[in-house]
Amino acid sequence: MAKLKFLGKNLQKKKLTKIGEHSIVSNISRNILNGPMRGWICGHFYPKKSVFHRKDIEICLKVLETNTKEEEHFHLCSFEFLIVLDGEVEYCIGGKKTKMKPGMFYFLEPGSTEFISKVIKKTTILAVRLPSIPNNKIFINRLDKKK
Fold first, then answer.
1. Which of 14, 34, 35, 68 could be a cystine partner for 64, CB 3.0 to 4.6 Å?
2. How many angstroms separate the first and last alpha carbons of the chain?
3. What was the pLDDT predicted at 10?
4. Which residue in 40, 11, 41, 10 sits closest to 24, CA to CA?
5. Does any domain span residue 111?
6. pLDDT at 78 over 80
7. Alpha-carbon gap, residue 86 to 102, rounded angstroms
8. Distance of alpha carbon 78 from its chain centroid, rounded?
């Protein structure tokens, strides 16, 4: 199970959500981190009636284990921001490997390629992508096979 040092004992089993007229107050829960949403806090992929269903933004808090790898991909029409909160990870961004440590971040424009090449130490990341659009993630190796 994912553990987040900065949450300590505050990591609840499930989310506790309060909905205001123009606000939502909630918490990161074990279910958000380890359940079907795999760390995604909001986005188009939540059920339409959920308060976390959003078309304008996706937010994700993820713990990357040392065996985590990712296929090279890009997003057709979304901007992405990612910050490393703890740990150490190597991303390949635009074909160049970059080691990232706590406090380091990247911004990507639509069409920029990236992937996790190696998780050096268990790493926690916070990612924000906007807008949130279905079928926006394009895998490079799958494009090559179509040619």
1. 68
2. 40
3. 65
4. 41
5. yes
6. yes
7. 5
8. 13
Amino acid at the residue 23:
S
- Residue 48 placed within a domain: yes
Residues 44, 75 contacting (CB under 8 angstroms): no
Residue 6 lies in a domain: no
**pLDDT exceeds 50 at position 1:** no
Cis ω on the peptide bond leading into residue 131 (within 30° of 0)?
A: yes
Contact 127, 60 (CB under 8 A): yes
Task: Give the CATH number for residue 47.
Answer: 2.60.120.10
pLDDT of residue 126 exceeding 90: yes
Give residue 18's domain range. Answer: 12-146
Contact 38, 28 (CB under 8 A): no
Q: Say how many domains are in the chain.
A: 1
Q: What is the DSSP string of 15-81?
A: ---EE-SS-EE---BHHHHHSTTTTEEEBTTS-TTSTTB-SS-EEEEEEE-TT-----EEESS-EEE
Give the span between the Cα atoms of 120 and 67, in whole angstroms: 9
**Cα 45 from chain centre:** 13
Identity of the residue numbered 100: M
